[in-house]
Each structure stands twice: as C-alpha cells, then as structure tokens.
Automatic annotation (TrEMBL):
<dbReference type="GO" id="GO:0030060">
    <property type="term" value="F:L-malate dehydrogenase (NAD+) activity"/>
</dbReference>
<dbReference type="InterPro" id="IPR010945">
    <property type="entry name" value="Malate_DH_type2"/>
</dbReference>
<feature type="binding site">
    <location>
        <begin position="132"/>
        <end position="134"/>
    </location>
    <ligand>
        <name>NAD(+)</name>
    </ligand>
</feature>
<dbReference type="InterPro" id="IPR001236">
    <property type="entry name" value="Lactate/malate_DH_N"/>
</dbReference>
<dbReference type="InterPro" id="IPR022383">
    <property type="entry name" value="Lactate/malate_DH_C"/>
</dbReference>
<dbReference type="InterPro" id="IPR015955">
    <property type="entry name" value="Lactate_DH/Glyco_Ohase_4_C"/>
</dbReference>
<dbReference type="GO" id="GO:0006099">
    <property type="term" value="P:tricarboxylic acid cycle"/>
</dbReference>
<dbReference type="GO" id="GO:0006108">
    <property type="term" value="P:malate metabolic process"/>
</dbReference>
<feature type="active site" description="Proton acceptor">
    <location>
        <position position="190"/>
    </location>
</feature>
<feature type="binding site">
    <location>
        <position position="134"/>
    </location>
    <ligand>
        <name>substrate</name>
    </ligand>
</feature>
<protein>
    <recommendedName>
        <fullName>Malate dehydrogenase</fullName>
        <ecNumber>1.1.1.37</ecNumber>
    </recommendedName>
</protein>
<dbReference type="Pfam" id="PF02866">
    <property type="entry name" value="Ldh_1_C"/>
</dbReference>
<feature type="binding site">
    <location>
        <position position="165"/>
    </location>
    <ligand>
        <name>substrate</name>
    </ligand>
</feature>
<feature type="binding site">
    <location>
        <begin position="12"/>
        <end position="18"/>
    </location>
    <ligand>
        <name>NAD(+)</name>
    </ligand>
</feature>
<feature type="binding site">
    <location>
        <position position="108"/>
    </location>
    <ligand>
        <name>NAD(+)</name>
    </ligand>
</feature>
<dbReference type="Pfam" id="PF00056">
    <property type="entry name" value="Ldh_1_N"/>
</dbReference>
<dbReference type="InterPro" id="IPR001557">
    <property type="entry name" value="L-lactate/malate_DH"/>
</dbReference>
Amino acid sequence: MSKTPVRVAVTGAAGQIGYALLFRIASGEMLGKDQPVILQLLEIPDEKAQNALKGVIMELEDCAFPLLAGVEAHSDPLQAFKDTDYALLVGARPRGPGMERADLLAANAQIFTAQGKALNAVASRNVKVLVVGNPANTNAYIAMKSAPDLPAKNFTAMLRLDHNRAASQLAAKTGTKVGDIKKLTVWGNHSPTMYADYRFATTNGQSIKDLVNDQVWNADTFLPTVGKRGAAIIAARGLSSAASAANAAIDHMRDWALGSNGEWVTMGVPSNGEYGIPAGVVFGFPVTTAGGEYKIVEGLEIDAFSQERINITLAELQGEQDGVKHLL
Ligand code: NAD
Ligand code: LMR
C-alpha cells in the first residue's frame, strides 16, 4: 500500500444512507482499490445517534478492510471536516410520507450554513463536496455561500440518482442494457421538476429518441416516473431510498475523482451562465470528468419543450434560493 491515505468526511453517518455508503467507501469502491481512506464521521451529539455511530464503527472494524486507515467519530463539524479531502454531506432530515422538500428548507438551511462555515475554516483547500441531504441543490448552494474561501466549483449536489433512475427506465423501454446507455442527462433540481433528457442519448450507438419515438410517453410516463421515483419509494418502503442513494453518491464521487472516460454523467454544479442558467445556481448539468475536475457539456441544442422544462425547474430553484437568502 504505497498511496497516502485521503480523508473522507461523511455526515449523518449513522443514518440509513450512511449504513449503505461507508462500507463501500472503505472497501475502495469510491476512490479506487489502491487508495487508503480515513473516515471522519459526523453525527448529531444526541446520545442515541452517537451510540448508533459507535455500532457502525464496530462493524467497519470487523470488516477488516485493508484500505481503511482510520475511523473517527465526531459530533462537531469543525473536527469532522479537519483537513478533509472529500466531504459527503448526507445528514439532514429525510422527507416522510406526504411531505414536500420545501417543508424541509428552513430546518436544513441551518445545518448547511454551519457545515459550510466549518468546511471553510478547516477542510483541505481542494475539498470536493457532495451534498446528498435534501433539498440537495439548495443545501449545496447554502454550504457554498457559507464557504467563501473555498472554490465554489467544489460544491456539488447529487443528481446522479435521477440520472441512474432515468437510465434504468430507458433500458427497460428500449429492451437494452443499462450499461449501454450514453449521453443521458438530468437538468435542474433534485425534485419532481427535474428534466430527464434523452434527446442526445444512445444505446448501443442507436438514438434512444428514434427508438422510443413517442413524445406522449416521454411527457406523460417517463418524466413523471423518474421525477416522482423518490416519492414512490417512500410510499412503498415507508422510508426514503437509501441503498440506491448511497450507490449514486459513490458513482458521483468516483467519476469526479477518477474520471468518466469521456462519458457524460449528471452532476448538480454551480452554473457559470451555461444554457442561460444564472451564475451560482446549483443546477443539474451534463458533465464529463477528468483529472479530478468536471466540465459542463456545452453547445447542446435546447428545443422548445426542453426550454419549458428547464425554465420550470430553474424557477423552483430560484424560489428555494430566495427562501434562504435572509439566512446567508
Ligand atoms: P436518516 O434519517 O436515516 O439519516 C440521517 C442521519 O443524519 C441521522 O442519523 C441524523 O442523526 C443525522 N443528522 C441530522 N442532522 C445532522 C447534522 N446536522 N449533522 C450530522 N448528522 C446529522 O436519513 P437518510 O435516509 O440517510 O437520508 C439522508 C438525507 O438524504 C435526507 O435528507 C434524504 O432526503 C436525502 N436523500 C437524498 C437523495 C438524493 O438523491 N439527493 C436520495 C435519497 C435521500
Ligand atoms: C429520493 O429521490 O429518493 C430522495 O430525494 C428522497 C425523496 O425525498 O424523494
């Protein structure tokens, strides 16, 4: 083992996504099978949460992962984020049956202001931040705004679960393998307004738009199925998605750190004005990744239907941002 360990902070580490995530990070699935990691785990100070975290750490130890170079339990973000190279901000209050993400905005704004400030104070200057906790785009925006000394581009939100959900639906529709689907993207907010766009997508090199050739299916079946998948899982399980969310977080960080080999992936990233999205809005875009950096795919044609969808999800995000302005 020759590589120097990197520090990976995970918040909400004793929650259900944490339980599906930590073991995969420690086994090398996120940063590579040759990259040792030190886990810096954050939970709320509450005794029950800290005890649960202790149990998770016992299990991590019992896995005897060769790449796990250390595990720390924390209740203070200033300690959990010390020198961290990667920060996965999962801890937040999950949505229960009948609740919308907007209801969670104010409660979560407090959490992400404090965590953004802590990252600003103590994290590695190159820390790569992924916000999973909902409302993910706006929480990432709040953390980014609370960390003025860190590069804004290093604050990202998770739309990869939406991307993966869309890919799976398209594979079923076209009778092809999910691994053959390329050039798919999901624009906008991680919410039912997201716009999953397969106009450029291919499967085995064939245009998915041509194969499907059904705009009614797109508007009335595909988009609502992908957009409301989180709610469908809550209705079925009584709990929000966890294993698939953890899997998407691994995909997002792995591709960011190790590269997407020219393939498009979807990341929620602060706009620089691309596609008319105002600068600073954390928006789902198609990106390619290489050398630890992502690059928004530019120059795609936006037709009238797509523009309308993008406007809707942008308006929702701007409404969320306006709702938290006074807290920043
Ligand atoms: P959970 O309730 O099982 O776990 C959340 C954990 O976070 C709890 O253990 C809680 O104690 C902890 N926590 C709360 N506030 C914290 C804070 N300030 N600092 C540190 N820890 C804190 O929830 P979960 O199912 O793991 O989901 C976590 C979040 O992820 C929720 O907001 C959920 O809506 C969101 N989510 C997002 C996506 C996505 O695609 N972006 C997908 C699924 C779930
Ligand atoms: C999901 O998409 O599964 C999560 O964001 C949970 C939710 O509230 O929909």
